Amino acid sequence: MNKINAACIIIGDEVLNGKINDTNSRYFAQFCFRLGIKLREIITIGDDEEQIMTTLRNLKEKYQFIITTGGIGSTHDDITYKCVAKSFNLPCMINEQCKLRMQEKSNPEGRLSPQALSDYYKMATLPSGPTVKNYYLYDDLWVPVCSLNQQVFIFPGIPQLFERLLSGLTPIVKSLYHLGEKDIEYVRYFIKTSMTESQISHNLKLLQEDALDVSSEIKIGSYPHYGKGFNTISILGEKKDDKYLLELMKRAEVEFEGQQLSTEEEDEVSNTR
């Protein structure tokens, strides 16, 4: 079984100053969960060269699969390509394939001034070297997913683009990390209870301790839903332990006077303010 550990770097001052709401990290977390990849860290940082490079150098020592999102546009603060390349001691150069795709799909020479054109092609100035591979996943998009060392993957920050490209990368991720039907698959169950977290805390701890005797991958948590009159208990583990996870769920239903909640119902409650 493959145990692939992952990390996600969200890059952008606009996230840190509250201008935009980051949804990419949650989408990536769901992506990893579906593939049986263990997402270990999500880090949000600003458009700062030293911070990007230091963060990436630290993560490269720990994780096999790392993505970045944001900071690959045409303005002065879009420095992700340059920073990722420097962290691998590689240069950034105009990528002729990317430039050609940009020309074919948006005719920049016919509509932009020389300065604007120069700035536009900043988005085609990609890391360059023997360990770099650019994945062009859709015929109607010129932007690639740039990969370095089959470890770090650079994505745009725009959620619609990010989600589409990440989804399109699925078969490549499965192939690169040798993920197949026999690899780790995670399952999760939810129990709804009207008991408070203080009331369930002790028995929840005992439940987790018992579960650790079966697998360190089993995680039990609780999530309060303020003003809704109930809390949710989550039981997560590997598919191979599904029989035991179902036993835990039944035990929790009895001990916490609860009832099973579907994933769809839990998502609706969790994402409603």
TrEMBL record:
One of its GO terms (biological process) is flavin-containing compound metabolic process. SUPFAM superfamilies: Molybdenum cofactor biosynthesis proteins. One of its GO terms (molecular function) is FAD diphosphatase activity. It comes from the Eukaryota. Residues 7-176 form the MoaB/Mog domain. Pfam families: MoCF_biosynth. CDD domains: cinA. This is MoaB/Mog domain-containing protein.
